[in-house]
Every structure is written in structure tokens, then in C-alpha cells.
Design a protein that fits this description.
Number of helices: 10
Pathway: Protein modification; protein glycosylation
Enzyme class: transferase
Strand order of the largest sheet: 1-4-3-2-5-10-7-11
Protein name: Hexosyltransferase
Distance between the termini: 75 Å
Structural class: alpha/beta
Radius of gyration: 23 Å
Shape: globular
Strand content: 15-25%
Order of helices and strands: HHEEHEHEHEEHEEEEHHEEHEH
Membrane topology: Single-pass type II membrane protein
Bound molecules: 2-acetamido-2-deoxy-beta-D-glucopyranose
Region (Disordered): 86-106
CATH topology of the domain at 35-178 and 199-279: Spore Coat Polysaccharide Biosynthesis Protein SpsA, Chain A
């Protein structure tokens, strides 16, 4: 009897300490989520709210097919970058044939590519853009001013578009038009990646705001008072599970706009408690999302997902070689 009582006390003690350890653990874990999200004022949210802007070109049905695309490419461009769009259409956005699934039960790795833009003052653009949109059905344009400072607005627009018009895609990739994308590597690699709350790219874990006024990336203390950024992925090209596009769009009502769009996405991820995943090559631990410029080398590129710095002509030349001979490395 006494012995049983002792045992019971021990069990209770153990139970209490387990709860204590657990709560300390939870406290430590939530430490890097600094404050509970406070909704923005209406005026602050209006900057990124989809209700503020009107579509000039949209493709509401382009994704509503069965099955939905496996990967949706969202490419921010400005209206005048027709040549860059042409190069993307003729290179990685239309690989010779989608790699076929290893078994009939697996999904086919299809992609869909759409270009997102605001408006410019140049009226001459209007009719050529109309023609391009009719011809390719891949232009989404909203009536905000297309400037570098408004890239964050464009990014939130892309996340909203994906969650509204393409909710059944498996993955979404935000990628600039001057990026080389090795879809032959990327698509099979993604097949085995997480489908929820997943975002990967070139992770920047120790970013800090620049305060010098002369920098293109400068932020005032008023725009961003903290002295560190939360982890984020470089904006050149990153991949996320499609559910996370909708969650980022939702989180945007809690995050004040900063003109650095990739940092902004990082701030939305912090609200959601999602950490970006590193994408490193097995042996070398080399970053698969290469955000520096590299000279084209077929066999080096065949082991990377993206490479930065490809003007349209260079992209077309590299692709001509890569698309047919990447397998021979
Ligand atoms: C997504 O899938 C659901 C269920 O299969 C379907 O009802 C819906 O119409 C699809 N939505 C789009 C936009 O394709
Ligand atoms: C962003 O777009 C809005 C809406 O067109 C415009 O009023 C604003 O001036 C733009 N901001 C910048 C910094 O370009």
C-alpha cells in the first residue's frame, strides 16, 4: 500500500516535470515569433489588397483544367519586357515533353507559366500587349503602377491569383524572367517534396536592413524598425507548395508593406510560423538555387535548379544546347 502510494507520487512528479519541460520547450520555440499579428489599418492594407486594383488582362479559366498543373510559374515582368517573355516561352516554360511519370498512378509533371505586370505611363504599349495577350493567353495585368517599389504589390497579387484561380496546382514557383530554370531537375525533385507549408529557394537566414540612403535596398527605421530580417528566400526564384500561396496572401493583412518583396514574403512566413527549407545538393551541400551569375556550363547547370542573370539572347542560346544534351553529363 505504502509502496503503491510512493509509486503514484513518483508518477505525478514525473507528469508535472514533463509538463514543465514541455512548456519551456514551447516557450523557447515561439520566442522567434515576436508579437501576435495585429491587422493593418485599412489604409495600410489597401496597398496590397486585391480589392484595390482592377484586372486589365486576366486568364480566369487558364488553370481550371483537369488535372491542374503540377507546377505553376509566376513570372513578374514589366509591360515593356516582351523580349524576355518571348525567351521564357521558348525555353524552360515549354520543355520538349513533360517527363512522364514512373508509374501510371503518379501525376504527370505539367507546368503552366503566367506573366504578371502592372501598368506604365506608356500608352503605346496597350495595343501590342493586347495582341500578345490574345495570342498567348498568359498575361495577367492589374492597374497599379509597375515600378520597382511596387514589386511587393505584384508579389501579393501573384499569391492571390494562384490561390483564387489555380488552387489545385501542387506547387507554385515565383521566378524572374532573367533566370535559367532547370525544369528537368526541378520537376522530379519536387515530386518528393512536402505538399504543405513548404517553401524553398536560396535561404537568407541572417539578413539585416541597410540604412544608408544611397542603397537600392535601403529601408528607413520607420519602414522597418527591427534590426534583423526573419529568414527568407531570395526573390530571384523560389518554390512553394500551392497551399502556402493562399496562406501568404492571407498573412499579407498583418504585414506592413516594405519595398523588398522577398523580405516581405519572409515577414508573412513569420506570421504563419513557417520556416523556409534549404535546398542543398547531397554531397557538396551546394545551393541548388544559384543566385549568382555563372558562365553557362551544361554539366554544372544540370545539377542546379536555377541560375541567375540570363538576358533573353543568352537564355535562348544556352537552352538550345541544354534542352537536348543535359542528359549526357
Ligand atoms: C479544384 O478541384 C476541386 C475538386 O476536385 C474542383 O471541384 C474545383 O472545381 C477545382 N478548381 C479549379 C479552379 O480547377
Ligand atoms: C504603386 O502603385 C500605386 C497604384 O497605382 C501608385 O499609386 C503608387 O504611386 C505606386 N508606388 C510606387 C512607389 O511606385
Amino acid at each position: 500500500m505504502r509502496r503503491a502510494l510512493h509509486c503514484w507520487t513518483l508518477v505525478k512528479l514525473l507528469g508535472v516535470s514533463a509538463v514543465l519541460v514541455l512548456s519551456v520547450h514551447v516557450l523557447l520555440r515561439t520566442k522567434d515569433v515576436p508579437r501576435s499579428p495585429r491587422p493593418l489599418t485599412d489604409a495600410e492594407f489597401a496597398l496590397v489588397s486585391p480589392l484595390t486594383y482592377r484586372f486589365i488582362h486576366n486568364q480566369p479559366a487558364v488553370c481550371a483544367r483537369s488535372p491542374a498543373p503540377f507546377l505553376l510559374f509566376l513570372v513578374p515582368v514589366s509591360p515593356q519586357e516582351a523580349e524576355a517573355r518571348g525567351a521564357v516561352r521558348r525555353t524552360w516554360s515549354s520543355p520538349p515533353s513533360p517527363p512522364s511519370p514512373p508509374s501510371p498512378h503518379e501525376e504527370t509533371l505539367t507546368t503552366l507559366t503566367l506573366f504578371f505586370m502592372g501598368v506604365t505611363e506608356d500608352r503605346g504599349q496597350v495595343s501590342s500587349l493586347q495582341e500578345e495577350s490574345t495570342r498567348h493567353s498568359d498575361i495577367i495585368q492589374m492597374d497599379f503602377l509597375d515600378t520597382y517599389q511596387n514589386l511587393t504589390v505584384k508579389t501579393v497579387m501573384m499569391m492571390n491569383w494562384a490561390s483564387t484561380f489555380c488552387p489545385n496546382a501542387s506547387y507554385v514557383m515565383k521566378v524572374d524572367a532573367d533566370i535559367f530554370v532547370n525544369v528537368f531537375f526541378l520537376l522530379p525533385w519536387l515530386r518528393n517534396s512536402p505538399r504543405h507549408d513548404f517553401i524553398t529557394g536560396s535561404v537568407i537566414g541572417d539578413g539585416r536592413p541597410r540604412r544608408d540612403r544611397n542603397s537600392k535596398w535601403s529601408l528607413t527605421e520607420d519602414q522597418f524598425p527591427e534590426d534583423r530580417f526573419p529568414p527568407y528566400v531570395s526573390g530571384a526564384g523560389y518554390v512553394l507548395s500551392a497551399d502556402l500561396a493562399a496562406r501568404i496572401a492571407w498573412a499579407s493583412r498583418f504585414v506592413r508593406v516594405v519595398p523588398l518583396e522577398d523580405v516581405y514574403v519572409g515577414l508573412c512566413l513569420r506570421v504563419l510560423g513557417v520556416r523556409p527549407s534549404y535546398a542543398l545538393a547531397g554531397f557538396t551541400l551546394r545551393n541548388l538555387f544559384e543566385i549568382r551569375n555563372l558562365e553557362y556550363d551544361r554539366c554544372v547547370f544540370s545539377r542546379l535548379i536555377i541560375v541567375n542573370g540570363f538576358k533573353p539572347g543568352k537564355l535562348l542560346r544556352a537552352w538550345q544546347d541544354f534542352s537536348t544534351r543535359h542528359n549526357s553529363c
